[in-house]
Amino acid sequence: MKKLLSSIAAVLLIGSTLALGIEPIAVENGSFELPGLEKYKCWDGEDEGAVDVNGWTSDGNPVDSGVETGWGATDGIWTAFLMSGDPSVWQITDHVIAADETLRLQVDAKNNWAATTLQMSLFAYDEVLDPNDPNIVIPVRTPIAVQDVTLTDAMQTFTLECATADVPEAVGYLLGIELSNVSAGDSWLGLDNVRLFTIIPTGVNIVWVTENIDRDGDGVQDDEQWVSWLMDEGHTVDVRPDYWTTFDPIDPNDPNEVPKIDQLNAADLVIISRTANSGNYDDGDEEAMWNSVETPMLALTPYLPRSSRWKWTSSGEVREGGTPLIEGVNLDHPIFDGVTIEQLNIVDPNDLIDPNDPNAPVVLPDPIYGVDMLDPTVGSGQTAFFNTLDMGNGALIAKVYEADQGVIAEWKSGIEYYAGSGYIAADHRLAFLAGTSEIGATPQGAWNLTAEGETMLRNAIAYLLYQPLPAREVSPGDGSTGVALDRTLTWRAGKLATMYKVYFSKDKNAVLNGTALVDVVGGTSYNIGPMDLILGTTYYWRVDATDGEQTWPGTVQSFKTTDYLVVNDFEDGLGGWKDAMLGSHTTVSLDVNEAIMHSGAQSMAVSFDNSTNPYYANLYRSWSGADWTEAGATRLVFWVYGDPGNDPSERLWVKINGIQINLGGSALQKAEWTQMTINLGSLATPQWKIRRMDIGIGDAPAPAGYKGIAYVDDIRLYRVAP
């Protein structure tokens, strides 16, 4: 048997973690919905005749703890309640604790009455033999993470994390959850939606854009230490000096080569080294191609982001600024997490005393905070910065102390870098200016970060990789019209998201306030075909990205559905139209015409000869029972183009399921498109069982008529006729 664990480690989730592979661990009845019969004051049938609450147990009979409804459930309708002084409630999962994982427990909890503190615990479960009786097995629950959290009157989510690297003795045990009301005095707390996750840390794939530069002649690439550091961080680094200086077509001698833009899009992060000479990356379409890369990008050099190259900043000036102190413009940015921030403008109050008026009040300047990010002893001791603080539509994060030079800045996905740039960030862009400048024979782009600068770079990479982003680049775009009723909504994945909440309604407010949820999907598309949309109607929709714990809302989009459904547009031929009396005479000839059309590329030409019996032309199309009420359709509309040579006595008519509607003859003499509209509600036939439609020219029965031609196009169903 393994020895009992001796150490306890706990940490509350306070920020993002540089990790991939967040996977749920099954918690039985985590929302307390079972047995779902009535209020129970028990957990596992401690009292005779009591009903088990599935999955949960306690070490004794509770006085007043169990499950009930009506107390602010966040998942389902049932919650658990725990009385202070009652035994804790716990369960053992099937998850075997592994090395190098982080365990995350999340619980929704609140004060029901006078409760102040919930104790959350993760434990390792073991079974040992009783030393006095080897036939008896003693279960042992050893805590590996414990945290007391303060409750309020509203349900909120509390999170406990435990890195198994801090409790290596726990590896190999089953994982358990334990929850207890440790409030003083008599009190009750509520619990719901207990969930567990395992987070497996991994490195990511980074493309390092560099050139073959060894200015100091030591046989080592000048920026090699950056690559080594990234690899030591656990990342896979793609280093091919000079490979990215051009976006030439695929090498004909290497048919397996993947297009360079696809290689960049497949990476997790692209880092532009200070060794990248900017003139090599903006030939022809290269500016546009680099800006279209759908992967986060970090630039160590200011030369490529400037206005004369990739146009991230509106200024083309760069300043070689030594290695000054870096002033934080936005000290709340995650880049500064864990970084020692110091006041840079420390002033002795005695230096501010007015010698002419020593009693005058001394006013200290507002404090300025920053960090010593760069090492002046490396290489030339010079680093290049933006010679501006204007980042356009981006955000300045840090600058040179006492100088108008930008050092760290970001541009979010989907925005133009600055007004007039002409380029939009296809994904997050970050300038993190570091690496030595080349002066004489000193290295170009050598590692020159201090320990604090190293932490900032680590934070910058984590921020780019794991900054949550909403679903974006949605289609159809906002304000789109003519959207097909069976359209599939699509969007670009939100970073960190594992699922997407789709909201859809004719009511904009229902989408805005989140009451119009129609589905939660795992992919980046949703088909609206089964939703029975209405013609010519405006709909609103939104996609929220979520990882199951946090949600990143999208923006409300709108589109208007198509105004009509196509019965026939004749773009693919006659579409099933035939002569109704084929074989008995030759009064009508049907063909497609590419010279006269209402829309598209062709129409149906109807040549008729009513001078022979039966003296009228009749063409038709049949269905097995078409529904012409679909999507709210109320009108049948089609267009007719006539010929001035047609005789005025000829008449146009339509039959639907044998019911004739006379349309007159004026359209047959006009060399223009005339709209014909039929109110489907006026038909004495079921509109949802259309079997046949006839179009006729001439009277039936009637005396002999005349020869002529007409064109028919765009037979459609409308809700409101145009």
Q: Which class of secondary structure composition applies to the elements? A: mainly beta
Radius of gyration: 37 Å
Model regions low in confidence, pLDDT < 50 over at least 5 residues: 1-20
Cα separation of the termini: 82 Å
* Helix proportion: under 10%
Largest sheet: 10 strands, mixed
Overall number of strands:
44
- What is the 3D form? extended
- Put simply, the count of helices is 5
As laid out across the biggest beta sheet, the strand order is: 14-13-15-16-24-23-22-18-20-19
The residue-averaged pLDDT reads: 89
Strand content: 35-45%
Question: Would you mind describing this structure in some detail?
Answer:
By secondary structure, the protein is mostly beta strands. It contains five helices and 44 strands. Strands 14-13-15-16-24-23-22-18-20-19 form a ten-stranded mixed β-sheet, with helices on one face. A hairpin with a 5-residue loop joins strand 22 (395-400) and strand 23. Residues 1-20 have low confidence and may be disordered.
Layout of helices and strands:
Elements: E1 11-12, E2 20-25, E3 57-58, E4 66-69, E5 78-83, E6 89-96, E7 102-113, E8 117-130, E9 133-150, E10 156-163, E11 174-181, E12 188-200, E13 205-209, H1 224-232, E14 236-239, H2 260-266, E15 269-272, H3 286-291, E16 297-299, E17 318-320, E18 326-328, E19 342-343, E20 369-371, E21 384-386, E22 395-400, E23 406-411, E24 429-432, H4 451-466, E25 472-475, E26 480-483, E27 488-492, E28 499-505, H5 508-512, E29 517-521, E30 525-527, E31 538-546, E32 551-552, E33 557-561, E34 564-568, E35 578-579, E36 588-593, E37 603-609, E38 617-626, E39 635-641, E40 652-656, E41 659-664, E42 673-679, E43 690-697, E44 707-718
Parallel strand pairs: 13-14, 13-15, 15-16, 16-24, 26-33
Antiparallel strand pairs: 1-10, 2-12, 3-6, 4-5, 5-12, 6-11, 7-10, 7-12, 8-9, 8-11, 17-21, 18-20, 18-22, 19-20, 22-23, 23-24, 25-27, 27-30, 28-29, 28-31, 31-32, 31-33, 34-44, 35-38, 36-37, 37-44, 38-43, 39-42, 39-44, 40-41, 40-43
